Amino acid sequence: MPTSLPSPFLPIHPTPLTQSTFSPFGTVIECPFPPSISTFPSPTPDNSSIIPANQNTALKLLDVTRMRNLYGSAPSHVPSKAVMNMFTCFPRALRRTATQPKKEYFDVKILERHPYTTQTFIPLSPPSASPAKNAETKYLVIVAPSLPATSALPSQEAGPPDLDRIQAFWGHRGQAVTYGAGTWHAPMAVIGDDRIDFVVVQFANGVAEEDCQEVELPYPEGVSVHVGDGDSRTGEPKL
User: What whole-number distance in Å separates Cα of residue 205 and Cα of residue 89?
Assistant: First the structure.
């Protein structure tokens, strides 16, 4: 059962997801080449982490993220295995207030962490036939560092989330994201008109407390992300 973590009401505003801003929490994976490059480049990029592959019909970008398996230090010593699942994530309900009916908020009700493994979310191709809807649909990456360990939430590595330093980022379909081992984060939140399908890669050993730890943020306290100003008739967020 998740630990409850009461807190003052904290409104936050998301910023674009970039490697430089997200680096304290993990890795952003995205192609560095613009869409206009559709043939094998000549000359090839002068970069030791980009090499020709497949008989010069592809470029291989090396070590785009670092996967970590720390289960060797878990208390149970139960061995882990690599796991690949798919999450089909549907658009989240947003909240409006009576005083500001056009402002839309996503309320963060729970944070989780995987203390002994990284976790990578890889979006798949858009499911919708509507390019406009695809462009408007994004996802929120909500993360927080840890406070020192406490008796309420014991761990070999760290304690509850530090809500004073929680951050939110806008991710899009062309970006994958890796949460560092032990990074507190909200469950995936899709904002817009369409679902997004993610392949999720991590390690797990089947011991619930070692695979995933959770804290609840009871409403109306907790964290609220301002996601934009919606259309009062349709309720569609304007991102």
Answer: 24
Q: Where are the alpha helices (DSSP H) in the chain?
A: 19-22, 131-136, 208-211
Q: How far apart are CA 48 and CA 61, in angstroms?
A: 9
| 147-176 pLDDT tens trace | 987 655 544 457 899 998 999 999 999 999
Question: How far apart are alpha carbons 185 and 108 in whole angstroms?
Answer: 10
pTM to 2 decimal places: 0.86
The encoded tokens of residue 184 equal 């507190």
Q: What is the pLDDT of residues 134-143, one digit of tens each?
A: 667 999 999 9
| CB-CB contact of 17 with 177 (8 Å) | yes
For CA atoms 151, 210, 27, 163, the dihedral sign is negative
Structure tokens at 88: 């089909």
DSSP characters over 136-150: H-EEEEEEE-BPPPB
